[in-house]
Specification:
Strand content: 25-35%
Structural class: alpha+beta
Largest sheet: 2 strands, antiparallel
Number of strands: 4
Shape: elongated
Number of domains: 1
Helix content: 25-40%
Length: about 90
């Protein structure tokens, strides 16, 4: 598909034509999710990570990625509770 975009630079004005392609977003997302070569790169479940604090000798929670944060944890709990209510 081609799209035409007006372009002006100083006194010069013209339409620029670009060729674009697209596909439905859900099909693209499913292609990525269903690719077995990419599975090791995905994290579907929240995690809580801890390290030993050398000063206090107690476990200390650390956040390293989005899946280790509280928001992801709460979202997973929300979806789980919602699914249980539907069944």
């Amino acid at each position: 598909m081609e799209i035409s975009v007006p372009y002006s630079h100083g006194v010069k004005s013209e339409d620029r034509v670009y060729t674009v392609s697209f596909r439905p977003a859900m099909a693209a997302i499913l292609d990525v999710i269903e690719d077995p070569d990419l599975h090791p790169s995905f994290t579907f479940y929240p995690e809580r990570h801890y390290v030993l604090n050398p000063q206090t000798k107690k476990l200390m929670r650390v956040w390293t990625d989005i899946h280790t944060g509280d928001d992801w944890w709460e979202l997973q709990v929300y979806f789980y509770v919602s699914m249980m209510e539907l069944s």
